[in-house]
Amino acid sequence: MDRCGTLLIAEPGCELSDGLEPWLVEQGHQFIRVDNIRDVLMTLQSEKVSVLVMDVRLPEAMGYEAISIIKGLHRKLPIIITADENNPAQESQIRQKGIFYYHVKPFGMDELILAISNAMVRASH
Questions:
Q1: 13, 12, 70, 9: which is closest to 41 by C-alpha?
Q2: What's the CA gap between 109 and 61, in Å, rounded?
């Protein structure tokens, strides 16, 4: 089964996408980088996205505020939320929205790559 897919990365800068790019290319995945919620929604309408990785702090709003909208459009889309710091209250609030995984960036890329791999497998079924 072909498990290559398209990853949509929504972040204010390029830190995550730059860090993930070598692995994504090696695995045969495509990726699209955006930096705001509007572009996330527009991309989801125009592209077949397998997994969304979204920073919790996008410029115009907290990223998690858009999760309900995204889930309304693409109910089965695996969403991985990334955060700069461990905030249990925020994590709990975000997990209640039905995300696939919550990643605290200082915990490292290996954990995030594993979550993306698992999400890609899930999306391919």
A1: 70
A2: 25
Residues 46, 23: contact at Cβ < 8 Å? no
Mean pLDDT, residues 6-18: 93
SS3 of residue 34 by DSSP: strand
Do residues 83 and 101 touch, judged by C-beta distance below 8 A? no
pLDDT score of 21 more than 80: yes
| CATH number belonging to the domain at 6-124, selected among 3.40.50.2300, 3.10.20.340, 3.40.50.1100, 1.10.1740.10 | 3.40.50.2300
SS3 8: strand
Amino acid present at 67: I
In the chain, where the domains are located: 6-124
Question: pTM, whole model, 2 decimals?
Answer: 0.92
Tell me how far apart the alpha carbons of residues 83 and 12 are, in angstroms, rounded to a whole number. Answer: 12
Give the single-character DSSP code of 65: G
